[in-house]
Amino acid sequence: MTKQCFGNAKVPLSPAVRAGDFVFISGQVPVDQSGAIVPGGIKAETEQVMKNIEAALALAGCSLSDVVKTTVWLKHAEDFADFNAAYAPFFPQDPPARTTAESRLMIDIRVEIEAIAYKPQS
């Protein structure tokens, strides 16, 4: 199996890596294009993270409809309901499998999400 890395990150990781028919998206955080953490709490952060996941998927020729699994880390369990409200519109039908856990995060944010997509190569 060959591995192909996509994108350039400011930290030692690839935003997206294709391994065969699977695409692995590194944990995305709620930063905008300037690198600033978006204000507005869990809903705004979740929306930005999902936009960042969409951008990373696009590097590998994928979209959210190709996502089969996500892993979510929330800083506060009490954000779970508001997180779900912001996350759900990105997967209006047949949402991917998901794991969600409360966790201390590496920077002062409320959510981080990684994704796995499946898209057979042409």
UniProtKB/TrEMBL annotation:
InterPro entries referenced in this protein's UniProt entry, alphabetically: RutC-like_sf, YjgF/YER057c/UK114
Domain of life the protein comes from: Bacteria
Pfam name, any one: Ribonuc_L-PSP
Name used for this protein in its record: RidA family protein
Organism: Aquibaculum arenosum
